[in-house]
Amino acid sequence: MRLLLDTQVLLWAIYQRLSPARQERLRDRDNDVFFSAVTIAEIALKASLRRTDFPFEPREVSEAARSSAFDELALTADQVKRLALLPWHHRDPFDRMLVAQAIEEGLRLITADRALSAYTDLVEVI
After folding, report:
1. Which structural domain, as residue segments, surrounds residue 74?
2. What would the pLDDT profile of 85-111 be if each residue is shown by its tens digit?
3. What's this model's pTM, rounded to 2 decimal places?
4. How many domains does the chain have?
5. Using H for helix, E for strand and C for coil, what is the string for 51-117?
6. Helix or strand or coil: residue 126?
7. Domain CATH number, residue 47
């Protein structure tokens, strides 16, 4: 299975905040697990605000994702064109870009945000 982790799930995976069963699923060699450049952009934006409740740095998260054997997914023009067609079920631009990527690439988007399931059955809420 091809999985795309949203920002929150990526952070949970890297910092061991997922259940053992969910961690095992991400380590399963039968699954291709992706993190998006969109997620790193979101983390960079939040880090630049110097929020005390957000201690994550984009370089650290990106390196940790790669060392977890997750593959990076770039944002493409086709994915952005899909973004323009999405209904406004959700207002967060980063989440909307992840949904567009999941749809365009046929990836299962793993998220904790139930609102995203309104877009497609490719969204899996954990």
Report:
1. 2-125
2. 999 999 999 999 999 999 999 999 999
3. 0.95
4. 1
5. CCCCCCCHHHHHHHHHHCCCEEECCCHHHHHHHHHCCCCCCCHHHHHHHHHHHHHCCEEEECCHHHH
6. coil
7. 3.40.50.1010
